[in-house]
Design brief:
- By secondary structure, this protein is α/β, with parallel strands linked by helices.
- The protein contains 30 helices and 31 strands.
- The strands form five sheets. It has an 18-stranded mixed beta sheet.
- The chain is globular.
- It starts with a helix and ends with a helix.
């Protein structure tokens, strides 16, 4: 992990060399330090593998960690001071001389650290082989198809049938079918059930092989194990010859023995895309090809892969949709727990209070089968008494992550294989409270502020790179996507409680993060005993803002949670500003502070300031001292100080809620990428909004529309890189001429709009369009269906107040997503032949009558929304359950905007299925029979 911190410091050095011109030999010193840090990073990648098992290595690595912190701070301080405008030559020379001396000090310190490694007797690091920690992890994970896990198969019955069907039926081409999910969720269990299923055994006969791949993937050993399962040498001589084969020879031999035969090979626990390519012998010149080991023939052969990384599944066979395992439903979790905790006994024989304790413990497992099995096994050996079970409930962390390490060991395997930059991002997630839904926009801004994101080439934006990092963590099943946008971008995410506990454990091992759990204790944790870089406070913020923590001067990130502070919080925040000068992140969201001290302007390293949902009404003028600030996020200010416009590095500025008419000169902020909360009249009074044209990509304007439509249209047309625009007006929105908004791809309009512009007046590249509260009384479809690039259309509440709409023949030719679910006055939608040929997602209100729905053959997701009362098991109530299964439609109850209930139906794209018309119409009829709330 420490190598990631060194990488952050090395990256900062690169910025120095790229952005600042030096004198007095400073460039040479910077380059020397950069080389030293780069060499250290490579060394630490090996050291990290031995750190867990050797205290000497662990202590030595902790010294390097502090060294990396110091290097990063020196570099940032130099960049800030050297870039000050109005700074005289003398001061600049003095600053550069100072940084030269600081670098010399760091180099001397590095020499000392290197010598101490030898003095401490740390072992030489490097070479091949697997350390004892790796072996313990692999032994805990080792699998065999002959070990039955029947006790953890609850909730997998439907998946089992689906998987069996994929193995024995369908395409005769060789296919790779993947089961994807978090460690401990049941991937191997499901694979075992299917591997031993009667129909599968009959289909593939003796040509079945099961092999555990492991993190230490060795292709030759795997080929050998497969051959042991599917091939018996004709003579001893051949067996001896096989032992002499190298990896390539044995792979070719295996291919020859499987050629033109129908086989099933299970590769359990494939970790990375590199491992798959190595096993299948995929050429680097043909990524995604079938490879050279497992024959492709047309005889129905199959490979079954289990993996934690969705990217492995996509690479192995892009034409097969991976089977992703989710957490168990509450009823399945309870059934599994009862089977383990009560064994053969009837749960109803026990007291209600005992069962209620059991339900509370199961709820804490959040549907993770492994945790439920471990918990149930523990309770099966204990007395079935209220005191005993209450003791377990109160100390579940200790029982599941302490005395019985199975849960953490299995989850830890997902962590140890992360690349260093993803480890930093993953550990950072533990700063958020348990069960917290995390805003993706906020999370990515925090990662950027901490310096976790590495620049990829010259064209890719840093935010896009950060978003890729998040998607990688999601594909590895370490983060759960909670809410997606219509174009499938993750808007909100969360972390499973046990995964969060893993992150906390690892972060504390690294002295990297301290995450305070809510507590009624009045004593503050001993922050001063260790040098944590990040601190998260969920309760008792005022306890932390005291002199006993002043030794935490190295603190780089401080996050708080909801609290009411004495004196409006000014003394607490003042203390933070005085004591923690190196802060890069200060997140005070939800903290009921009424005023910020002037000292806030002394935090020259600060890159992120979160003030959302506080009691602040304005900011001090000293805010202009935050020279490094990249993100200012607030939604409660009544007055915005003009000094904000002096912070030249601002990239994200959110000042929603301000209601003054005074001009805010945001056109001075040439690095702005995201601007939200500016009022219409403030925007049009800017002297030169075109100064924002280089960087500004997303803009949100609000308030009364007291300006001419042509004035707004002209000012927006000057923003050559603007891609997303949100207009929220409290009064009528006039006609807008938008055809000069050349690069705008997303437009949201909320507020009264008597009439839509003509189709020719819309942005030429518009792909996503949302209307809400526009109260159009004329059918908008004749205009919108002419927009050539439109792929997503959302007509939300009161956007159209008529009762009928019509889509003309062969229109909306690029439309993929249509949402009209909140138009409750709409009763009829006429879809003419050939319209919306590419529509894949459709969301509508339950009573809407739709003509020619059957012609939308590319539909894969349908949401039918209405105020529906659900029982605990809706599946048992639906009389056409078999029709859903036979049509390959998967459906689940779902909650939508404004807490409205409905059904989500999904089917695999590309299959030749019956028309969904009858299916949906019968579902609507059924829903009408369910009593409404």
């Amino acid at each position: 992990m420490t190598e990631a911190l060194v990488h952050v410091a090395t990256f900062a050095l690169t910025k120095v060399l790229q952005e600042v011109k030096f004198l007095c030999g400073v460039p040479e010193k910077v380059k020397e330090l950069q080389r030293d840090l780069s060499a250290m990073k490579s060394f630490l990648e090996e050291a990290g593998k031995k750190e867990e098992e050797d205290a000497r290595v662990r202590n030595w690595v902790s010294e390097i960690r502090e060294y990396a912190y110091e290097a990063e701070d020196i570099i940032d301080k130099f960049i800030i001071r050297d870039s000050l405008k109005g700074c005289c030559i003398r001061k600049r020379l003095k600053n550069r001389h100072s940084v030269g001396k600081n670098i010399e000090g760091l180099q001397s310190e590095l020499i000392g650290i290197s010598r101490r490694r030898e003095f401490l007797g740390c072992p030489n690091i490097g070479g091949e082989g697997t350390n004892s920690s790796d072996r313990n992890l692999q032994n805990a994970r080792q699998s065999s198809p002959r070990i039955e896990d029947g006790h953890v198969t609850f909730g997998l019955e439907v998946k089992e049938k689906q998987l069996v069907k994929q193995l024995i039926k369908g395409d005769q081409e060789r296919r790779v079918i993947s089961v994807v999910g978090l460690g401990g969720i049941g991937k191997t269990t499901l694979a075992k059930k299917v591997y031993n299923h009667k129909e599968v055994v009959e289909c593939f006969g003796p040509l079945r092989a099961w092999v555990y791949v492991s993190r230490d993937c060795k292709p030759r050993d795997i080929y050998q194990k497969i051959l042991e399962e599917v091939y018996t040498p004709a003579a001893q001589e051949e067996a001896e010859k096989m032992k002499t084969f190298d990896e390539e020879q044995l792979g070719n031999f295996l291919r020859n023995k499987l050629e033109e035969k129908k086989y099933l090979v299970v590769l359990d626990d494939v970790w990375t895309c590199e491992d798959w390519n190595c096993l299948a012998k995929v050429s680097i010149n043909e990524p995604g090809s079938a490879g050279g080991v497992f024959p492709v023939g047309k005889n129905g052969s199959r490979l079954l892969v289990t993996t934690r990384d969705e990217n492995v599944a996509k690479l192995a066979d892009a034409r097969v949709t991976p089977l992703t395992l989710k957490f168990l439903a509450p009823e399945d979790s309870w059934e599994l727990f009862c089977r383990k905790a009560f064994l053969d006994a009837d749960p109803s024989a026990f007291t209600k209070p005992l069962l209620e304790l059991g339900e509370k413990m199961v709820k804490k497992c959040e549907g993770l089968p492994l945790a439920i099995v471990v918990l149930g096994g523990l309770l099966s050996r204990s007395d079935k008494s209220l005191p005993e079970w209450g003791k377990v409930l109160d100390n579940m962390d200790a029982y599941l992550t302490g005395s019985d390490k199975r849960v953490m060991v299995i989850l830890n395997l997902s962590y140890v294989t992360l690349p260093s930059h993803l480890k930093l991002c993953f550990l950072h997630l533990c700063l958020f409270p348990e069960d917290h839904v995390i805003s993706t926009r906020k999370l990515l801004s925090l990662w950027l502020a901490q310096g976790f994101v590495q620049k990829q080439g010259n064209t890719q934006r840093m935010k896009d790179t950060a978003n890729e990092y998040l998607n990688q963590l999601i594909s590895r099943n370490l983060v759960q996507a909670v809410r997606l946008s219509v174009n499938k971008r993750v808007m909100e995410c969360r972390v499973h409680d046990f995964v969060r506990k893993l992150a906390i454990e690892k972060a504390k091992e690294e002295n990297f993060i301290s995450a305070d759990s809510p507590s009624t204790s009045t004593a503050a944790p001993p922050l001063c005993s260790t040098k944590f870089r990040w601190q998260s406070i969920y309760s008792g913020f005022d306890r932390y803002a005291s002199m006993e923590h002043s030794s935490q001067s190295c603190l780089g990130s401080l996050h708080s949670s909801k609290a009411v502070l004495p004196d409006g919080g000014i003394s607490s925040v003042r203390f933070i500003c005085q004591s923690f000068k190196r802060l890069r992140v200060l997140d005070l969201e939800g903290l009921q502070i009424k005023k910020l001290p002037k000292k806030i302007g002394e935090l020259i390293f600060l890159r992120y300031l979160g003030l959302r949902n506080t009691s602040l009404k304005t900011l001090p003028s000293s805010i202009k001292g935050l020279l490094s600030l990249q993100t200012l996020d607030t939604n409660n200010l009544e007055r915005v100080p003009k000094e904000i416009c002096s912070i030249k590095n601002l990239r994200d500025l959110c000042i929603e809620g301000q209601n003054e008419s005074k001009l805010i000169r945001v056109d001075k902020l040439k690095n702005l990428q995201y601007l939200s909360g500016i009022r219409f009249d403030q925007w049009t009074r800017l002297n030169n909004p075109s100064k924002l044209s280089t960087c500004l990509e997303k803009l949100k304007l609000q308030g009364r529309f007291k300006i001419k439509g042509v004035d707004l249209s002209n000012s927006i047309s000057k923003l050559r890189n603007l891609r997303s625009l949100y207009l929220e007006a409290s009064d009528d929105i006039p006609q807008l001429v938008m055809n000069t908004w050349d690069r705008l791809s997303k437009l949201d309009i909320k507020g009264p709009m008597p009439k839509l512009p003509e189709a020719s007046q819309f942005p030429p590249c518009l792909m996503q369009f949302t209307l809400e509260g526009t109260k159009l009384d004329n059918d908008p479809m004749p205009t919108l269906e002419q927009l050539p690039q439109l792929s997503t259309l959302r007509l939300r509440e009161n956007s159209y107040i008529g009762d009928e709409m019509r889509v003309s023949p062969e229109r909306f030719i690029r439309l993929n997503v249509l949402q009209i679910s909140e138009l409750t006055q709409l009763t009829k939608l006429n879809i003419e032949s050939g319209a919306m040929p590419r529509l894949t997602e459709f969301q509508f209100y339950e009573k809407l009558q739709i003509s020619k729905l059957s012609e939308l053959q590319n539909l894969v997701e349908v949401d039918i929304i209405g105020q529906i009362v659900f029982s605990s098991d809706i599946r048992a109530q639906i009389p056409f359950h078999m029709l859903l299964q036979n049509g390959d439609w998967i459906y689940t109850p779902r909650t939508y905007r404004n807490n409205v209930k409905g059904f989500h139906l999904y089917r695999e794209q590309g299959k030749k299925l019956p028309s969904p018309r009858e299916l949906i119409e019968r579902l609507i009829v059924f829903l009408e029979q369910i009593p409404k709330k």
